[in-house]
Sequence to fold (184 residues):
Amino acid sequence: MVKEMAPNAKTRGVDLASLRIICYPDPRLTEVCTPVDEVDDAVRALGARMLELMFASKGVGLAAPQVGVTVRLFVASPTFEPEDRRVYINPKIISAEGVQDGDEGCLSFPGISCKIRRKKVATIRALNLRGRPFEETGEDLTARIFQHETDHLDGCLLVDRMGSVARLANRRVLRELEEASAGA
Ligand code: ZN
Fold:
């Protein structure tokens, strides 16, 4: 038996000012995240804070587990323009097709960039900040962000998507991240 948690237990009472982007191999990054129960002010504030952290780190996408909050939410701005910022709550990729190969990085894997094959086009369904469902179809980088960020919500990381060649090429940086975490 697991004790039932109060609705939005993971997003209420989060100290937003102290949130930081966490790095591999922090165990929170491999958790399967739980859905957001209700889009309330705490969820909206979390999304806003995550966008701040994402832009400050020059990222185009950031998932909630990357700030240690293991709920199904991510933020993105494929163009890196503030007016293109969006928050996706309880997102689900409902269709995807085609293939693209390209370099991919992750704010939780600083110093790593590797070729990852993704679907070229992806349609996502999510809730917006008002709790209303919406669908969006993205191509190329936007589709890549959808796939990378929804992977995070299932605890699937860049290191799990890397082929053996990329893993070998990045082994020094991966080891440094592991050592930094062990020494922290
Ligand atoms: Zn990432």
Residues 106-108, 148, 152 surround zinc ion (CB under 6 Å).
